[in-house]
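$ ./design --mode recover --in tokens.txt
reading tokens...
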């Protein structure tokens, strides 16, 4: 499906006329017609405005995330897995869901460039003033903002953590942290 076909389809599903949609976007009717007939392509700012006005994602608007296409693209392996999932008792389903959620988080972190893993010994205490959640969140970022600027990515997290601990210690000494 082309962008124009997708745009027409979604606009009509929402019950919006071409004239009304052009007015809503504050663009000429003929320009919208050119987008819908694939004679022109909108810039990314207009594409975002179109998606927001139609209450869909940009991916769906450009035809990359069409729900109808997703239904057709379910593999036999996915169908077998879904059947196995349905055969599990509630406890088993809960375990599968937990594993799936964790795997999704891992993949999202890797896709965001956060794939490095650091092993921190449990015996090592957390830095003063840092919760376990904050420490965990920090360890999954590729770099941290510090002193108004980003640290160089070649500085390891361990070195930055040590600097962070030192900053917290100094602030406590000055009475800035309670």
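writing sequence...
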């Amino acid at each position: 499906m082309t962008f124009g076909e997708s745009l027409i389809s979604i606009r009509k599903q929402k019950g919006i006329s071409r004239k009304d949609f052009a007015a809503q976007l504050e663009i000429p009717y003929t320009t919208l017609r050119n987008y819908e007939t694939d004679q022109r392509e909108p810039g990314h700012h207009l594409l975002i405005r179109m998606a927001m006005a139609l209450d869909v994602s940009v991916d769906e608007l450009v035809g990359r995330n069409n729900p109808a296409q997703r239904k057709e693209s379910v593999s036999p392996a996915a169908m077998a897995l879904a059947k196995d999932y349905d055969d599990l008792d509630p406890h088993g389903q809960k375990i599968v869901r937990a594993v799936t959620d964790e795997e999704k988080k891992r993949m999202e972190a890797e896709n965001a460039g956060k794939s490095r893993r650091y092993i921190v010994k449990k015996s090592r205490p957390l830095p003063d003033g840092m919760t376990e959640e904050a420490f965990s969140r920090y360890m999954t970022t590729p770099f941290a903002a510090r002193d108004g600027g980003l640290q160089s990515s070649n500085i390891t997290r361990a070195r930055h953590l040590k600097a962070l601990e030192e900053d917290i210690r100094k602030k406590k000494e000055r009475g800035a942290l309670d």
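exit 0
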